[in-house]
Amino acid sequence: MKNYALMFLTLITFWVLLNSSVDPEVLVIGSGVSLLVSLIFCAKCDVFSEINFTPKAIVATVMFIVTFVSALVRANLSITKRVLSPSLPLNPGIVQVKTKLKSKVGRMVLANAITLTPGTFTLEIDGENLYIHWVDVKSGDQEESTKEIVSGFEKYLELMYG
Amino acid sequence: MGNILDILGGIFLVVGSLSLLIASIGIYRMPDFYNRIQVGTKASTFGLLLIVVGVALISPITWIGKLIALMLFVLFTNPISSHVIARAAYFTKVPFTKETKVDKLHDVISEGHMKKVKNNG
Amino acid sequence: MIYTAVAISLVSVLVALVRFVKGPEKVDRIVALDVVSIIGISVILLLATIMKRVIYIDIALVYAILGFIGVIVVSRFLKRGL
Fold first, then answer.
1. Domain range spanning residue C40?
2. For labelling, which of A68, A135, B75, C23 has a CA lying 20 to 30 Å from the CA of A17?
3. What count of Cα atoms within 13 Å lies in the side-chain half-sphere of residue B44?
4. Would an 8 Å CB–CB cutoff place B34 in contact with chain C?
5. Quick check: is B121 in a domain?
């Protein structure tokens, strides 16, 4: 039941965003189509059911967005410096990190966030191991890389996705 | 009031397009594929985000729904598509640059420790 | 100011196309294609602002979806054939 409701809410939100109006006929058509689609296609989609909706999780979501935006800005400043410097300072390598997250959506959001933050790029996910291409490798050790790359986002994502 | 928003939006647009320029200079200058895709993904996503914010500041308020939908879509799908390209490159053995220090993934694959079957796209 | 942004974007399309032509590997060309399609989306957004037509943003959305699917299809083809 929760799956159907969340799918319906997501679909109707996108419908209203794309139409950018809340006229009665738009809402009626949109909710009809969203109800139909979520009833037909959402028999066992457990993607949305892993999200928590406790107040703590909402605070964690806001904090995650703040951390993510600041990391994005820092990533682009460091990339600009790296690209425009004449000597191209590089020290690349692939390191292995571990995540504590269990849910699929949480791992996907973590991988996307790692891709968009300074100098790191998710190359492969294999269960709880993430293989990351790092422009400036500080150490090949697994625990130190985990502390450096993952734990900043992980503490919020653990609260969001359980 | 509208004037201030116009100027602010213009600044966002120019900074965003400069970020796109950084993305293309980066994929031109970097020595190997993996560094190119890092620069390309980060700088182009950031540039597009800034341009969406700038357009939202300049344009009428009714456009903002579509702009938010576009921003969310790009923010979720651009890292995924570059992840897919990078996996295709790694498993078709695209060469690394000489400066590359460690390759943990190669060690794991050659020891046969991967958990999942390696032929699923 | 908005015309400056359009000019800078067009210059960056040219720089990315150099990598598209040169690229030693096939995946280098796909990366260049990805960056060019992102720049194309932002140029369409700038055109929507200049011409004041909201319908262009729908075109940008559809172009984003098609670019994503195209990149994924080409990478899967490179990895294991059709």
1. 2-80
2. A68
3. 35
4. no
5. no
Looking at beta carbons, which residues of chain B come within 8 Å of A14?
A: 69
Query: Hey, which chains touch A, using 3+ CB pairs under 8 Å?
Result: B
Q: pLDDT, tens digit, for every residue of A9-60?
A: 888 888 888 887 778 888 899 899 988 888 888 766 766 666 777 778 788 8
Contacts of A13 (CB under 8 A, 6+ apart): none
Global ipTM: 0.88
Interface contact B38, partner A, CB < 8 A: yes
The number of domains in chain C is 1
Residue B98 forms part of a structural domain: yes
Across the interface, do A140 and B35 touch by the CB < 8 Å criterion? no
Residue B87 falls inside a structural domain: yes
The encoded tokens of residue A144 equal 């130190």
If one counts the domains in chain B, the total is 1
Residue B114 CA to residue B37 CA, distance in Å, equals: 24
Other Cβ atoms within 10 Å of A95 Cβ, number: 27
> Which residues form the domain of B54?
2-110
